[in-house]
Specification:
Number of strands: 3
Strand order of the largest sheet: 1-3-2
Oligomer: single chain
Shape: elongated
Distance between the termini: 72 Å
């Protein structure tokens, strides 16, 4: 049986352990409004009831999606127009679009570096040892001027 559902309230350390996070993180989320302020015991300990535990579980779960704090705040705020699911789908759509663009850029950079690497590997053996012209994808100019081979 889950301890969170059988107790009248979990203290912050217990909740943090249950959710795989830290008490500091939970206090921070409370401070910035991602979590409602916890009820307090007579000795001023934060106590989390089942609803607060569910809310904390949701926030921690959403953070595992690598949403930013502003994205989380936007997502958790009820705008009266869209559902949380619709807002999360919109955030994920945007994140996927950006990732696909980033991947395209990285693929282009990888293709370019691969071409330069292959060109350098194919450098003729009769070139000066310091010649990297092929990696720069330009005609070799290392032997064009006296002393150029030593400085290359």
């Amino acid at each position: 049986m889950d301890r969170a559902t059988t107790l009248p309230g979990l203290r912050i350390g217990e909740l943090a352990k249950l959710l795989g996070t830290t008490a500091k993180t939970l206090r921070f989320y409370e401070q910035i409004g991602l979590l409602e302020p916890a009820q307090r015991s007579v000795s001023a300990y934060r106590l989390y009831d089942a609803a607060a535990i569910d809310a904390a579980r949701l926030v921690i779960g959403l953070r595992h999606l690598e949403l930013t704090i502003p994205e989380l705040q936007q997502l958790l705020r009820d705008d009266g127009v869209t559902t949380r699911r619709q807002r999360l789908l919109a955030l994920m759509d945007e994140r996927l679009r950006r990732m696909e663009l980033d991947l395209s850029v990285l693929q282009g950079r990888c293709d370019d570096l691969t071409a330069r690497h292959c060109a350098l590997l194919a450098t003729p053996r009769n070139r000066p040892p310091g010649c990297v012209c092929d990696a720069l994808l330009r005609p070799c100019s290392c032997s064009a001027s006296p002393g150029a081979a030593k400085s290359a």
